[in-house]
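Figure 2 data, in text form.
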Amino acid sequence: MSKVIVIGGGAAGMMAAYAAGMCGHKVTLLEKNEKLGKKIYITGKGRCNFTNACNEEDFLKNVVSNPKFLYSAIYTFNSEAMIDFIEMHGTKTKVERGNRAFPESDHASDITKALKNALLEYKVDIQLNTEVKSILVEGDKVTGVELKDKKRISCDAVILCTGGLSYQTTGSTGDGLKWAKSLGLKVTDTRPALVPLNVAEAYVPQMQGLALKNVNLTICDSKKKLYDGFGEMLFTHFGVSGPLVLSASSIIGKKLQSAGKLSATIDLKPALSFEELDARILRDFNDNMNKHLSSVLRGLLPASMVPVFIELLDFDDMRQINSITKEERLAIINLLKVFPFTITGLREYKEAIITQGGISVKDIDPSTMKCKNINGLSVAGEVLDLDAYTGGFNLQIAWSTGYLAGLSIE
């Protein structure tokens, strides 16, 4: 039996403590907040989309950074195992659109409650309001941790589960990344991910609050297409947000930081080809020859988009349809198919769902989550350079890596 310290009482930390306890180790879980799972309480808008009930192959397709590293973890403890775990510890679950799994109650607190029940089952020593200052290492072996109050706790193994930099009010302040660097581990560049985007054009905030459904978003740099996706997005006072944009942010983040800006376009009518849209607009125009352009555009666009369209086309909104030339009609169609804006940056960590980047997976054994160069140190969760799209995938990364880390303690 080893004496194990788990640093961080979030998703990965609680699961790591449970798995280590299940294997018969004496486990102490150190959490600097006043309660466990603080970030879990705000996931899924308080409902907690705790996993995605897809198979392993589909799961790995939704991982953005280093999916191959997760092979052992996800096959050791997959989403089906997580759903069974939550059910077994007293919380009923349900699966909704897109295989997103939630507690049946729609209360995130029930997920945390199930995890607490599991920790109590194996007598994990939970110490709240306990902040770690550093990980103690002698030679190449972990010997314990030093707390902020300078107290030292000795142990045989440490599992580092301190999270990334997103939602810093929940305690994710990058401590684990600093410790990793001080111990000689490589930490890749970090950035906010699954985060809204800033936009340059002044006409975008004019559409604040407008949600678009069934549109196609394309983002390019000067040389190639970086992202192309179909779905929903939202205009805000600073730029754009919504599911499409959040997914895009994880793909373009690194390039955006180096390039400074990227061009984006929205196809507002992706179900129609240019020719099909031209035929439809011709019919609309023929049926409304004596009406103003703005009134006809309202049949094609949300009301708040119409003034922006007319501004970009440099038309008079009182123009009658019978005065619109063929070239002007084609310009309208082109704007419907290629509505432009310029992305200038990612929003801050406080608005990001997850952190991209972290402790390099090259320094971690994927079959055990153990650090290759420091005996007795394991790493799990968002502190690692692992991230995925929305839909329960990021929490499952935490569950799977935490479980494997706890299971692998000797």
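Caption note: The chain has two domains: 3-191+354-407, 196-347.
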